[in-house]
Amino acid sequence: MKVAIVHNKEKKTLEVTERLKTLLSQANIGIDEHKPELVISVGGDGTLLAAFHQFSHALDEVRFLGVHTGHLGFYTDWRDYELEELVDSLLTNREQSVSYPLLKVRVSYLDEKPDQCFFALNESTIKRSNRTMVADVYIKNELFESFRGDGLAVSTPTGSTAYNKSIGGAVIHPSINAFQLAEIASLNNRVFRTLGSPMVIAQDEWVEIRLENTADYLVTIDQLDMPKTNIRSIYYRIAKERIHFASYRHMHFWHRVKDAFISED
Ligand code: NAD
Q1: Which of 137, 214, 251, 265 has the fewest CB atoms lying closer than 10 Å?
Q2: Catalytic site residue 45?
Q3: Where does the UniProt annotation place the signal sequence (predicted)?
Q4: 140, 215: one domain
Q5: What are phi and psi of 239, to 5 degrees?
Q6: DSSP one-letter string for 107-165
Q7: Domain assignment present for 119
Q8: How far is the CA of 46 from the centre of ligand 1 (A)?
Q9: Hey, is 55 helix, strand or coil?
């Protein structure tokens, strides 16, 4: 098995990474930063998101595993003091994995620039900071509503506990192959009207957000900001590709939610 390690720059993480490298080498597991079968992120959820984007071109070949050096993460199953156990389980449970849905994001531009496609593991947002964002929301090519407000967030089930949750979206179990559209501070009055509730969109449906012709939108895909360009519209749907996690140990989703947001056992 070939392994790549993606880590953040914190002192504790660097120490953990060195220890992990030693244990992997003692177990005859090679490091391959370019064509790995397993990507181990060491850090927090943000580090796992970075690892995902680094290897999103090879989703069919790569499995992910997260070691957290801080608080319990949503994508990081292993604690930094469990490295021996982790390496042992790599040797004994090689075949197990669990997969989660991803969002496919297609951006189309006003000029001749070709469409661009991205995957999001958590979410994609469209915002306008100091002026009202104006956009038409289409579901399956049919105009659903005209949105005015700060912005819109489109999230995956595993991303539903991230930014989506902060703006009042529902938490969705990742076995549900669907995505969620949630509003960020919509303007609702006698003139402007939107649904006002988060919506869960089925896997065979797609959403298009057609922007008013201005260039000052902020579009994010997980922790990445897209450069400000003349975006005409953004299409969202559930991707055929999924993220595969090496499931050497699996934590019950609702247990993880309780642990993170209500109380630790
Ligand atoms: P980061 O690593 O500091 O992450 C920010 C926080 O979000 C951390 O506490 C992290 O554990 C948590 N988080 C990330 N993914 C999560 C998930 N799927 N479920 C529950 N919690 C999750 O910073 P970053 O690298 O910039 O991470 C980017 C992510 O941070 C974005 O995808 C977005 O979801 C989240 N975020 C949230 C808010 C908010 O809640 N107001 C604002 C900005 C970004």
Answers
A1: 265
A2: yes
A3: none
A4: yes
A5: -75, 155
A6: EEESSSPPPEEEEESSEEEEE-SSS-EEEEEEETTEEEEEEEEEEEEEE-TGGGGTHHH
A7: yes
A8: 7
A9: coil
Q: Is residue 32 part of a domain?
A: yes
Q: How confident is the model at residue 15 (pLDDT cuts 50, 70, 90)?
A: very high
Distances (CA, A) of 41 to 8, 52, 65, 174: 9, 9, 6, 20
Is residue 180 domain-shared with residue 205, that is, in the same domain? Answer: yes
- pLDDT tens per residue across span 61-78: 999 999 999 877 899 989
Q: How far apart are the first and last CA of the chain?
A: 35
Residue 161, domain extent:
101-240
Catalytic one among 32, 45, 88, 111? Answer: 45
How many residues are listed for the chain in this entry? 265
CB 63, CB 25: distance < 8 Å: no
Q: Which residue in the block uniquely carries the two structure tokens 């957000």? A: 209
Q: Check whether residue 205 and residue 80 sit in a common domain.
A: no
When divided into structural domains, the chain yields a total of 2
Best residue among 47, 127, 223 to mutate for probing ligand 1's pocket (most ligand atoms within 8 Å of CB) is 223
Which tokens belong to 147? Answer: 């949105």
> Ligand 1 centre from 61 Cα, in Å?
26
Kindly report, residue by residue over 23-68, the tens digit of the pLDDT. Answer: 999 999 999 999 999 999 999 999 999 999 999 999 999 999 999 9
